[in-house]
Design a protein that fits this description.
By secondary structure, the chain is of the alpha/beta class. The chain is built from ten helices and nine strands.
């Protein structure tokens, strides 16, 4: 099931699976291909995988601690279920996905967090400020919340924040601009609040871990994130490479054992070319007018080499964040002189990576274990 393509140069076997590599209109066996039927099947498979990932009941944390004053500035901590008292417990920091949009909060990834605790890890599940619904725009387009129309979270209702208020403040909290949003549709992220929060959470984490999970070892820490959270995980590991005038810049690499990014939105320009999550990357950076100027502060592909062990895990059948996005990041890393692991999983889409019922989730846990032990 696992196809590890950490070495990108000359990998002809992997190249044949890249989008566009196969001749249009033919299958591998040379028979004609019904493009519409294949697209419908891919959409149906993605919907089934999403339904499975979101079918698990949310798992309450052992303790929740705040790293700021906003209701979304909290971290849920989960203790390992069967810790070995003779071995320091590694800590996995989880950053959830959902295209940086408000309907998707940390609750949907709690079954994945619980899954990791049953593998012997302590877990810190980080919440952060995301985008919110904008006022109606007559005739405006509809922006999907993830792969399709805006959908409720696993609890059955979309929310705009932990307090339900939406916290619409000054214009810096608005992700999109111009025609980027439609009537009542969620905006992706807040500039700079989303980045403020992830940086603040990571800076506060060592002290919070000592208070919440004294058995966890913050020196054996790995960051993982899914989709938009994969972007944030890569970004958090590269803060020492940010421009010197960035408020999130740090002088030295973060004390991490590594990063495991799951179907990450790792290259914003490629993501925009593929219209990943309805232009979410562009919205996160404030819209078309500020997209280019903010890329050096936000786009992981521009923040290489990190010097931190990094693995990307990607489903070959992912239609939400296609394989080409992860490959672009791995290729850029190689050009920068850094080897980034790229684990490609056959017949796996976007959501099985965080679905405890899926084999792909076990692969993710193993990739994390290889970095922390």
């Amino acid at each position: 099931m696992q196809d590890d393509t950490a070495s990108r140069d000359g990998d002809d076997a992997a190249a044949q699976h890249r989008p566009g590599a196969q001749r249009e209109g033919a299958r591998h066996d040379g028979a004609p291909r019904d493009g519409a039927a294949e697209r419908d099947a891919a959409i149906a498979r993605d919907a089934a995988e999403e339904a499975s990932a979101f079918s698990h009941p949310a798992v309450d944390p052992d303790v929740t601690m705040a790293y700021g004053d906003h209701p979304d500035q909290v971290i849920d901590f989960y203790a390992p279920r069967e810790p070995d008292p003779a071995v320091p417990t590694p800590l996995v920091v989880v950053l959830h996905g959902g295209a940086w949009r408000a309907p998707y909060d940390r609750r949907h990834i709690t079954p994945f967090a619980d899954f990791l605790t049953r593998r012997g890890f302590a877990v810190a599940n980080v919440e952060y400020r995301r985008g919110e619904a904008t006022p109606p725009v007559p005739g405006g387009p509809t922006i999907p919340a993830q792969a399709g129309p805006a959908a409720p979270g696993p609890d059955g209702a979309a929310s705009s924040g932990a307090d339900g208020s939406g916290d619409r403040g000054d214009d810096r909290t608005q992700g999109g601009s111009g025609g980027d949003t439609g009537a009542g549709t969620p905006v992706a992220g807040r500039w700079p609040d989303t980045f403020d929060d992830v940086a603040a959470a990571l800076d506060a984490l060592p002290a919070l871990v000592r208070a919440a999970l004294p058995e966890a070892d913050p020196l054996r820490m790995v960051i993982t994130g899914h989709s938009a959270g994969g972007h944030l995980a890569l970004w958090a590991a590269a803060r020492h490479l940010l421009p010197a005038d960035a408020p999130w810049h740090i002088d030295r690499p973060a004390p991490l054992r590594g990063v495991v990014a799951l179907a990450p939105i790792a290259d914003f320009e490629v993501a925009e070319q593929l219209d990943v999550c309805g232009g979410a990357s562009r919205q996160l950076l404030g819209g078309e007018a500020t997209f280019a100027e903010r890329l050096p502060y936000a786009d992981p592909v521009r923040l290489l080499p990190t010097g931190i062990a990094t693995t990307l895990v990607q489903g070959r059948s992912d239609i939400v964040v296609p394989q080409a996005v992860a490959e672009s990041y791995a290729d850029a890393a190689a050009k920068a002189g850094e080897v980034v692991g790229l684990t490609l999983l056959e017949d796996v889409g976007h959501f099985p990576l965080i679905d405890p019922a899926a084999d792909a989730c076990a692969v993710v846990a193993e990739e994390i274990a290889q970095l922390v032990w």
